[in-house]
From TrEMBL, chain A:
Organism, as annotated: Streptomyces koelreuteriae
TM helices/strands, residue ranges: none
Name used for this protein in its record: Nickel-dependent hydrogenase large subunit
UniProtKB/TrEMBL annotation, chain B:
Organism: Streptomyces koelreuteriae
Lineage: Bacteria, Bacillati, Actinomycetota, Actinomycetes, Kitasatosporales
Cofactor(s) required for function per UniProt: [4Fe-4S] cluster
Family statement drawn from the similarity comment of this UniProt entry: Belongs to the [NiFe]/[NiFeSe] hydrogenase small subunit family.
UniProt name for this protein: Hydrogenase expression protein HypE
Chief location category: other
Length: 597, 363
């Protein structure tokens, strides 16, 4: 069993209510979450997650020029499309045997750092935190808000808010101070992104073999000045989040059980080291470990592997509850990897996608998402890894490996230290993210602002190195190549919300097979052939309910917090019915929901 | 010509119903459950001129009050609470509203038996997913205006490329190019993959001014695109256009010169991005080193693939311009050399040689 074990509690006779949320708001894409809630014992007893969108990228990419893959796969996702382009270019560079010039790697790293800062900021402050804002807490747990009004914020000196409730108020949608500031910060950081990758969200200047970005000193000057303009906002975000999350544990004992699942985390690594990456499969283990976010698979707190070759060979795409035909009887595209290791039929390299639209049946087939799993040789188990929403797995994996050691970011083996320079109002600050006790909703959310700080700190290093190269006249950003007749490639990267891999097979200079595996299929997957639920389902199932509303007024905020903590992004890859809708906005303000006047 | 500026004293807010036949309050029902990536919604949040929060907080003078219903930005927890305004609109209880569709519209008719390509909420009767097409069929006839956001919704886009399994198309292909809304408007197409943030906001605001009764409908071309945004080509606004004129072509992506030999379709693509930049004038495509892949066009993507090869048409045009361009480039080089010299009279010697003559008169 790879699922999370239930907690033993004293049981009352159950009072079961079916509740579903479909579509889920404040995420990217189509997601529905269907649950059975036991109001007598105040917990969720069953959860299904479903996605209702199929577009067929792996189908229509067949037969196309492989160099188009980065441009096409960007369109998979409207918030982290560049992660796909980057990952696709990594996979193509392996297939073509080309290594981009070091400056190109820096430019890609700077673009990706800006994406992490932008995306985590808008997601955390404008989407996730609406679940933690004053209006929402008042509507779901009024006693907790009353307590927040009386609780002084320990880190007030940094962020400037006196009480916890003051912080919560600052996140009220469209009206709160931080909510509005975050939108502005998300624009400044997207301008940084555009300086490196041309446009957001589908970049224009990334190519297999390098970039087309002109490495003018001005591009780096403009990036740096914007980064320094948001650096204090980053420090404040960490302090505000820590205050609110610590308060949640304190005000609602047992909240650590919300969204808790067994620690089964995957991270595929991010930020190539330009000095050592050569994109050869044969050396992938060593350059993979040189990435500035260390790849790794963590099971029950132990690092199982940080070798990208092992990670790659363990990938299994399972069916069971998805609307597709199986492909096991097709002939494989890739029987052995370049090192001679056998490649499984269920590996993305060998996958064939045959969609079969059908009725939704929660006892049989109920989602357009497949079930990616990682095969653990040690225990002969197909693990339903999750990404912890991205940051949790990245920080955890980087911390445990103890490899990253840079001027601004250091891994200690049990934590990650991040140093940010002096800003407009706050001094130089060193933050330390420590491995938490749980893989749960709060810790997934807490890790996010820390990773924003991580990305900002790494960006400073990339800037310094890139400007050094430009000043030295090393301004080459693109390396030419020929597309081979036959080749295979794989790319490993971290999309904003977690693991991302692209798997490519070329025959006759055309795409014979192409399968991208973004984070959300890992997180949002339905039950597989063995009946193992996907991470959303597993995390929500068995979680306690702290909301004070009964079944009639129930909003499901604890469940939504859990789902959103994974940073769902369904185009890459859940829906809930609430009884009586109740608007959360006050009079004289725009309306966005049920009270349509 | 009138001298009436149309403004009133602050104390005398005009009674709109009498002054002009305008709409005071309007709801935007945004559906991104076409086959989309939500990139157009995300792009919208990048706009600063005006920004989405300016719009919903009523900071743009002369517009109706706007209620925005969008899944990504909605404070609602989701489900029926979020769907309430859409359901009300279907029942005819919510008017006026602007329907914004994001994403390609799939062909449900090719599915045999049950199933759907993309859905939005559930059918309350059966509990099965409610296909996007049902919502469009219900809402389009009642909408005061319909806006297609992004190339997927306008023309089909990436998901409609050759070999696609879903048979998807653009909104006008689905509703008919002669569709007319309750407000008497055709579909307003704002292409782009994704939309350039301000291109979209500007168009939406124009539609809202029209709703308020203070502007005519936005001028659209034959593909229902705003004329002032898509009337010129990428090349006509590109920083690198002058390299083309001098026949200076980049051989690979290391060069700041014209990218037409390395896959840029700018000379024949209707788009203003090089001129406008992507955000706050920053970024873009060929002007900052990204080939134009024609993402705003009805023919996107198939007509432009493989993206990184030279467009067939440019082979001829760049051959024709070569003799002219290389001569011009050399002549300019000569002139450039000349004007890089200061005149001889700027020196620190004891004699003034500037031609100074206090008694000079023109005869």
């Amino acid at each position: 069993m790879t699922t999370t074990e239930a907690r033993p509690t004293e049981r009352k006779p159950p009072q079961l209510v079916d509740m579903s949320w479909d579509p889920i708001t404040r995420i990217i894409g189509n997601l529905g979450i269907y649950t059975k809630i036991d109001f007598a014992n105040r917990e969720v007893v069953e959860c299904h997650s479903t996605s209702s969108l199929f577009r067929g990228y792996s189908v229509f990419m067949k037969g196309k020029d492989p160099r188009d893959a980065g441009f096409i796969t960007s369109r998979i996702c409207g918030i982290c499309g560049d992660n796909h382009t980057t990952c696709s270019d990594y996979a193509q560079q392996m297939a073509y045997g080309v290594k981009p010039p070091p400056l190109a790697e820096h430019i890609v790293n700077l673009g990706e750092a800006a994406e992490y800062i932008f995306d985590h900021t808008i997601f955390q402050d404008n989407l996730v935190f609406v679940d933690f804002c004053e209006a929402m807490v008042k509507a779901t747990t009024p006693s907790v808000l009353a307590r927040a009004e009386r609780t002084e914020a320990p880190r007030g000196e940094t962020h400037g808010y006196r009480t916890i409730a003051d912080i919560m108020r600052a996140f009220n949608p469209f009206e709160g101070e931080v909510y509005k500031e975050a939108l502005k910060v998300s624009r400044i950081t997207r301008e940084m992104f555009c300086l490196m990758e041309g446009r957001h969200v589908h970049p224009s200047t990334l190519y297999p073999g390098g970039v087309g970005t002109m490495p003018q000193p001005t591009a780096f000057t403009d990036y740096l000045s914007r980064l320094m303009r948001v650096i204090d906002f980053v420090k404040k975000s960490v302090a505000m989040n820590d205050d609110v999350f610590d308060f949640f544990y304190e005000a609602m004992p047992g909240y650590e059980e919300v969204g808790r699942r067994r620690t089964l985390l995957g991270c595929w690594g991010a930020f190539q080291n330009p000095a050592t990456v050569d994109y050869r499969y044969e050396t992938m283990n060593s350059w993979g470990k040189d990435m500035y976010v260390t790849p790794g698979i963590i099971v029950d707190g132990e690092l199982v592997t940080n070798n990208l070759v092992d990670i790659n060979l363990g990938l299994r795409i399972m069916l069971g509850s998805s609307y597709y035909e199986d492909w096991v009887n097709e002939s494989p595209f890739v029987t052995h990897d370049p090192l001679g290791n056998p490649v499984d039929m269920r590996h993305p390299w060998n996958q064939t996608t045959v969609p079969v639209p059908q009725k939704r049946d929660f006892d049989d087939k109920y989602s357009w998402v497949m079930s990616p799993r990682w095969y653990d040789k040690r225990t002969d188990a197909h693990l339903a890894l999750d990404t912890g929403g991205g940051p949790l797995a990245r920080l955890w994996s980087t911390a445990l490996s103890g490899i990253v050691d840079t001027p601004y970011v250091k891994s200690t083996g049990h934590s990650v230290r991040i140093s940010l320079p002096k800003g407009e109002s706050l001094p130089e600050t060193t933050l330390e993210w420590r491995i938490p006790k749980w893989s749960n909703t709060i810790e997934r959310d807490r890790a996010r602002p820390y990773f924003v700080a991580y990305a900002a700190a790494m960006a400073l290093q990339f800037l310094e190195e890139a400007m050094g190269m430009v000043r030295a006249g090393e301004t080459k950003v693109f390396e030419n190549y020929e597309v081979p007749d036959e080749a295979i490639g794989c790319g490993f990267h971290e999309a904003v919300r977690g693991v991302l891999s692209h798997h490519l097979v070329i025959k006759d200079k055309k795409i014979a097979n192409y399968h991208p595996y973004p984070p959300t299929p890992w997180n949002a997957s339905p039950r597989d052939i063995y009946g193992t639920p996907g991470p959303y389902e597993d995390a929500v199932q068995g979680q306690p309910i702290f909301e004070e509303n009964g079944p009639d007024e129930f909003k499901g905020v604890d469940i939504m917090r859990t789902v959103r903590s994974f940073d769902p992004c369904l185009p890459c890859g859940v829906h809930m019915y609430v009884g009586k809708g109740k608007t959360l906005t006050t009079l004289h303000s725009p309306t966005y929901g049920a009270n349509h006047g | 010509m009138t001298t009436n500026s149309g403004t009133a004293e602050v104390s005398k807010e005009p009674d709109r119903a009498e002054d002009r036949q305008g709409i005071d309050e309007i709801t935007i029902l945004w559906i991104s459950e076409g086959m989309s990536c939500d990139g157009d919604t995300v792009s919208l949040t990048a706009a600063d001129q005006p920004s989405i929060e300016d719009l919903v907080l009523g900071l743009i003078p002369g517009l109706p009050k706007v209620n925005l219903v969008n899944k990504v930005l909605s404070p609602s927890l989701g489900g029926e609470d979020f769907l309430a305004p859409y359901r009300a609109a279907v029942r005819g209880e919510l008017a006026p509203f602007i329907l914004v569709i994001e994403g390609s519209v799939p062909n449900q008719n090719i599915i045999e038996g049950d199933g759907y390509w993309t859905s939005f909420g559930n059918d309350p009767e059966t509990g099965e997913p409610q296909p996007l097409n049902w919502w469009i069929d219900q809402l389009a006839p009642k909408a005061w205006a319909v806006v297609a956001a992004g190339t997927c919704a306008t023309f089909g886009g990436i998901h409609a490329m050759s070999g696609n399994p879903t048979g998807c198309m653009g909104l006008a292909d689905y509703l008919g190019w002669d569709y007319t809304s309750q407000g008497g408007l055709p579909i307003v197409n704002v292409p782009g993959c994704p939309i350039q943030p301000e291109n979209f906001m500007e168009t939406l605001v124009w539609v809202l001014y029209h709703a308020a009764g203070s502007a005519p409908p936005p001028p659209l071309d034959h593909m229902l695109r705003p004329q002032w945004l898509f009337g010129k080509t990428v090349h006509e606004g590109c920083d690198r256009g002058s390299y083309y004129e001098q026949a200076s072509f980049a051989k690979d992506y290391n060069s700041p010169k014209c990218l037409v030999k390395t896959g840029c379709w700018g000379p024949v693509v209707n788009c203003n991005v090089p001129k406008r930049g992507w955000m706050a004038g920053i970024g873009g495509c060929p002007n900052v080193g990204g080939i134009c892949i024609g993402c705003t066009m009805p023919g996107f993507p198939d007509a432009f693939m493989p993206f990184m090869d030279e467009p067939p048409g440019s082979t001829l045009s760049s051959m024709v311009i070569k003799p002219y361009g290389s001569v011009i480039r050399r002549l300019r080089g000569v002139t450039n050399e000349l004007v890089n010299h200061e005149p001889r009279w700027r020196h620190n010697k004891r004699k003034l040689t500037s031609g100074y003559d206090p008694h000079w008169r023109s005869s």
